[in-house]
Target: DUF3168 domain-containing protein
Amino acid sequence: MKSAQSLLAALFQRLSSDAALVAMLGADGVRDRLLPRPSLPCIVFGDMETRDISADDGKLDEHVLTLEVWSDGEGRRQGQEVAGRVHTLLHEADLDLDLGDTVLVNLQVTSLRTRREPKTKYYLAEVRLRAVTE
Model:
């Protein structure tokens, strides 16, 4: 679905162009995948599900996705600070999707979950988003 790809591009642009977030992560801190030897902290685009929730009056897509904040800090603090900045940048944000007549109707941060990954010992903060495009 074109709206999903355009949404991902708009999210990447918003996150990677924010000076405060770049200061926390470094220039290449927003990525599509976690590298084998990552420079941490970083944000990785995780799972995404897109569904057609159209009604009779128009085409609507619902997108549920996870942004993963990876951290090697001494606890959850570093990841939670980055996740907080992500929340500030994205919750109820108005993003341009660059798709002609397709627009972002709503974007919300719905939850934050943190945990230590047993295999790597990194901390992971999962920021869950819900977006609706029309």
